[in-house]
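Checklist before submission:
- one chain only
- standard amino acids only
- sequence pasted in full

Submission:
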Amino acid sequence: MTNKPYLSVVIPAYREIANVKRGVLNEVYSFLKKQPYTWEVVIVDDGSPDETAIHIEKDIRKYPGFRLLKERHRGKGGTVIAGVLAAKGEIILFSDMDQATPLPEINKFFPHFEKGADVVIGSRSGRKGEPPLRQLMAYGFLVLRTIILFLPYRDTQCGFKAFTHSAAQKIFKNMKIFTIHSTTTGVTAAFDLELLYVARKQGLSVAEVPVNWEHVGSVRVNPIKDSLLGLKGLIEVRINSLRGAYKK
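Returned file contents:
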């Protein structure tokens, strides 16, 4: 890979032994090695208490262009930010380890970047396999974020978002709740809300693109608890905005 690849894929990892054994990294490599552009994969271990990092290190020996960052445990927010800021690509994508949105969906994003978009986000179409309770709560959250933050997107929570290198710098260096030093652990919707709100405040253009997605169950996601945390974060973002924290 070159020093400055065209695409960087950032994958946060926390207790991901099952997914690594399932062969998700091989799926990622099998797709990327066939592409005409240069690329890198940055996997960021969020201080996993199990042998996730050991399994990843062993696996990526087979895959040129992959590297592992070992971080202390601080949740998805700080972990993704660390990976994005370490990425070198002209386009930087973060994607969940479970590959609920398959990596080939990135090909739908490139035309939007070519037209001048700074940020392209995936919008889950159909939400295949998602439990009805989560679908209902997602709809309620959509209403709240529209009212409180005026975010005009159908799906703010899809774990498949890409940025130009310069846009990533502007967004992730200007977040206030979630930073590279964030200590907010667990799964929280507020991370995606804050980054999209910052993108709008920075005057960046955001395109939303339908992507294939299939629900992959996770013991780390608690719909009620995580929705309440998301609501708390949503209010925090609004308060920060009223205080002028996100000005250009």
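Reviewer check: The mean pLDDT is 88.
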